[in-house]
Each structure stands twice: as C-alpha cells, then as structure tokens.
Amino acid sequence: MSVRRSLVAVCGLTACALLASSAAFGQKPSLKEVLKDDNATGVEDVWVYNDIASARKEAERTGKPLFVTFRCVPCKACAGFDAEVAQGNVKLLKLAQTKFVPVRQVEMKDVDLDWFQFDHDLNWAAMFVNPDGTVYARYGTQSAEGPDAYNSVEGLETTMRKVLELHAAYPDNKAELAGKRGPKRSYSTALEMPGLKNKAKYRGATARNNCIHCHNIHDAQHEHAKATGKFRYEMLYRFPYPENVGLSLDRTDGRTITAVRKGSPADKAGLVKGEELTHVDGQVVASIADVQWALHRLDYDAKSVEVRGSKSGERTLALGPDWKKYDISWRGSMWSVSPVMRVWMPELPDNKRRNLRIPEGQNALEVRWINRGAAGGKAAFESGLRQGDVVVAVAGKPITESNHRRFHMWMKLNYEVGQKLPVTVLRKGKKLDLQIKLVE
Predict the structure, then answer these.
(1) What CATH topology corresponds to 338-437?
(2) Confidence band (pLDDT; 50, 70, 90) for 16?
(3) Fewer CB within 10 Å, N or C, the chain?
(4) Comparing 8 with 214, which gets the higher pLDDT?
(5) CA separation (Å) from 299 to 1, 183, 185, 316, 426?
C-alpha cells in the first residue's frame, strides 16, 4: 500500500479506537497504542516501529542506510514537526521509504548507546547510519529560541540527500566519517548506566509514565558524575552551536554560512559569508547538528579547531576561554543538576505586574507550586516561601532572568547545596526577605 493510500485508509481511526479494538479481541495493546502514538498510525508500510535491530538487518540486506528518528511521544515540544516527518509530508516519506530503511524509535530502553550518541535533551532527533555502524549524519537542533527554531522538513530533506551522497561514496570516505561515531562507552544501554535512577520501574513494560526519555541519559550522566566526584559545570554545555565560534549557518541547508560575527574566531580565521562549511575537526558535515557534534567532542578548554570552507579552504579557529558557554536553560536534563528547589515560578503576567507597580524592565516570578513532598520544596516552605509569593529580587538585586527556567539555571550555576538563597518576595502588599535553604 502506498503512503498516500495508507494515510487515507486510517483517516478518523483514533488511538482510543485502536485500544478498544485490541481489548475487544483480548489482545495486549501494542506499544504504539499504549503510548497513543497517533503520528505512527497509517504509515506502517514506511517506518520500522521501535525495532532498530530488525531495521539493521534490512539495511544489510538492501544496502540502504538507516534513518532513525528518536521521538519522545508524550512531549508536546516538536509535535508538529514530528507529525510532518512521520506522516504529513508525502515527498519526505517517499524519499525515506525508497532510499533508506526508516525507523521510528519512541523509547531509549534498549537503544545501543555506543551506536546512537546524540544530544539526548532533544524532543526529536535523527541519525543516519551505515549498517556497519558508521555514522553519516545527525539532524535535530534545539535552543532557547524554541524546540523547532532550527528544524524544518526542507532542512531534513537537504540533509537526507547529502547522506545519500556520503553513502554512495562509502567506504572511500570512511576517514572523514570516523570521528562521527563517538567513543565506546562502558555501558551499552540506558538500563546499564550506573547513574540511572528508578531502574526497577523502567525494567517494567513501557507506558507513557514508564518510558526512558532521551533526557534521562544526560540525567544519569549527571548523577554518576556527582556520585564519583567528577561533576563539573563545564559538562553542561553540550553540543554548542556554530554561533559559539562566530558562524551563523543557513537553517535549511545546514552548511551555507549566512553571517560571520565580527571579531569572532571564524572572522579572524578568514571564513566568509556565502561559502559552505564542509568540515569541522576533520569530519565532513551535513547539518548544523553535525557541526554541533564536532564542537561537542572538543574539550571545554580546547584552544583551537580545524575547519574547512568551500572558498577559504583549511582554517584554524583560535578558541577563547569559556567558548562553549551559551543559554542552556531549555535543557530538560538541567533539572537533575543541584541545587534543586522543587518550586515552580513562572514569569508574572503583565496585568499582575502593573497592579503590583513593578517597574518596566524589571522581571518578577510568581510562586505557583511548592513540592513539599520533596526535600527541596519542603526546605523552601520551611524557609518561609509560600504559594502566591512574587519573587522580585535575589541577593538584593532585581530579577533579571526572563523566565523560571533561566532563573533556576542561574541559581544552579551560582549556588551550591548547603548554601542559602536570599530572595525578596511581595506578599499581600508587603516586602519580605527570605533565606531559602538549598538542601538537594
């Protein structure tokens, strides 16, 4: 059945109907039904569902590259883009079905983490892999701009076609692909990670509330680093952007330089607007995510990186201190970094800001929820914080962070467990100074 006919055939068939159908015949609901993965319905003839091992065998048989998408189904972020890729764009589906062995992976439980190393904080990611394990490319980039700021169907298609070129040239180009695989790890799957919490729960049957999310991989890495005394804040700046070295790349083709920041490492090295960035650290690049991977693999205190431009040729970019730093507040794995307050404080709405006469240009956070069942929330409550409080200052200075994620990230980077966080709150028209105990 064709992709288009498949989509028509299942029009109107909801996840609830599928579950009811399974129950009526006494069948155990499939993983797709359990997760209510509507975007996988109607395209069963395109995607291998959550089974990389069988897809690899098919890739070996057909000589096609693997195209593996990783999607956290319960997450709302990237849902629209996921729908387009999974079933909405007929042209993309035809390319995937005819030229690749496409896989829709919706959990990380049994994924080989030696093979599939990518930015696990993403809500949607893709990797293109040869059946022998050689990585051709990565696709998927997220930032504080939003989950889909860098992603598009057009950008993905451009990367897919570049992958086909790399696959056609393989194995003659194996040397420039070698660095894209990543180092072998001491564990193969998430369940083997020493820092993963709740392993007994995760070993059970997968459900929406029992799924190893991608960000749990980074959470486990944080926990293990803390337990072994190896945690460093530098490790949080994963997958830095091309902008970190002064480059803006076209988000559709992923390689054309659209701007070079004046005075940046890229500018000083002689890269110019309009040329293609073809290699970073010896690796051929097919997407912005590929550039991020190459930069990610460099040490935080690396002094330089080799790049190649289509016009400027080989160039050495001199890197300054803290060159990897950027706004990481959007990352889900940041919530596993200590200290943790267990308090939800979204930005105060404009109407409330005006009513409280908070000056223009000054931000404020409203305490909506305190998790008193967890150590951090209990300590915050015992320190005097109450639901409804409006936080207007920290350490005597007005709130400058624009949302609660940035505030929590600032706190994590500037305070440690055992310290007290001095905050000023408005409560019933009065200002109160509190010392919030940071205990976890």
Answers:
(1) Pdz3 Domain (2.30.42)
(2) very low
(3) N
(4) 214
(5) 49, 14, 17, 16, 44
